[in-house]
Design brief:
Length: about 350
């Protein structure tokens, strides 16, 4: 397992007054690209200690559970050397509790975690924390978009009111979970089908030729990775306060992932059937353009756009220039064809 480690933000932990006078402790959060058994994914982690053992916890706003991986189980399941390179670290259990009856937790992608209950000391930044209530707090530049949580949700669910792509509006109004434990956009089958059709048509018009999006091994891929410059940004509209409709923009340089060994780029989009799920999911990896402030007491999430790096800004400028040039050339050629037909 290989990882890349980049500092991303900070984790703000609200502590009991008995633990520290300031009541707030800031920890580093790292954005990691993880390669495991030929697959690639992304996650956010923060370093902690559990019973004085160093671990990395994944920051997952889509779950209310805190669990770690037991060393003996992982080494028995995979290999004795697995824990040496395991991104999250392995917890060495010294009590009989690890042999007791387990509880199964199923995830959306079909995987599951088997856990047992164990109480121990959790250390964050040198402080021992008996009770934790945390949210993500990061620096931001104004203006900041405010997206309220749904009234019924216990987690980080907002209301998505639509998806716009290149001037086309795809109707999809439903709760959507902002999930830092996922790198995927999960939407209903009908919405994803409409989205892919609009993406292909928009990119093909910009390129002046057909741009192929296809499914391979249950993944959506862009056959020619250089065609990424022709794809339009995604615009997600949320229900705001009053008549406000905050909009989050996801550019193609973020939603089209870098090429794998075959030279093709993947798009992290998945669908679910309407009768299997009632909530869409937006993975935090797709929101790298924004700083997020999760405010549970205020029942809202704040979004602020990250200042562009030189590389990202240049890529965006090149993409927009290339799209405008190709589309102008395509439109001119179509106009000439119409003139020829009418003359």
């Amino acid at each position: 397992m290989l990882t890349t480690r980049l500092p991303l933000a900070a984790l703000s932990v609200i502590l009991p007054q008995s633990v520290t006078a300031s009541k707030e402790l800031r920890l580093p959060v790292y954005f990691r690209e993880v390669h495991d058994m030929g697959n690639r994914d992304y996650c956010m982690v923060t370093p902690v200690k559990a019973d004085k053992q160093s671990l990395n916890l994944q920051i997952d706003t889509g779950s209310d559970s805190l669990f770690v991986v037991e060393k003996e189980f992982l080494e028995r399941t995979l290999s004795p050397a697995t824990c040496e390179d395991f991104t999250f670290g392995c917890y060495d259990c010294h009590t009989h509790l690890c042999k007791t009856e387990v509880e199964e937790t199923r995830h959306m992608d079909g995987t599951c975690a088997y856990t047992v209950q164990h109480r121990g000391a959790l250390e964050l930044g040198g402080q021992t924390i008996p009770d934790v209530d945390f949210g993500l707090v990061v620096g931001y530049k104004k203006p900041m978009l405010i997206v309220p949580l749904t009234e019924e949700a216990d987690g980080w669910e907002a209301t998505m009111e639509g998806l716009d792509v290149d001037g086309e509006s795809i109707p999809v109004r439903m709760p959507i979970l902002i999930d830092s434990g996922s790198s995927i956009l999960w939407i209903p089958y009908e919405a994803l089908s409409a989205l892919l059709k609009v993406l292909a048509l928009s990119a093909s018009k910009a390129a002046g030729r057909w741009v192929r999006l296809e499914v391979q091994d249950k993944e959506l891929v862009l056959s020619n990775c250089s065609d990424r410059v022709y794809l339009p940004p995604l615009e997600l509209r949320f229900r705001g306060r009053g008549d406000q409709r905050p909009m989050i923009v996801i550019p193609p340089e973020i939603y089209v992932e870098d090429p794998r060994l075959g030279g093709m780029c993947t798009l992290p989009f998945r669908f679910f059937r309407g009768d299997s799920l009632s909530t869409a999911v937006l993975g935090l990896n797709l929101l790298r353009k924004y700083y997020l402030h999760f405010q549970y007491v205020e029942r809202q999430i704040r979004f602020a756009e990250v200042a562009e790096s030189e590389d990202l800004a240049e890529f965006a400028r090149t993409s927009r220039r290339e799209q405008r040039k190709r589309r102008k050339s395509f439109d001119d050629s179509q106009a000439k064809k119409r003139q020829t037909l009418t003359s």
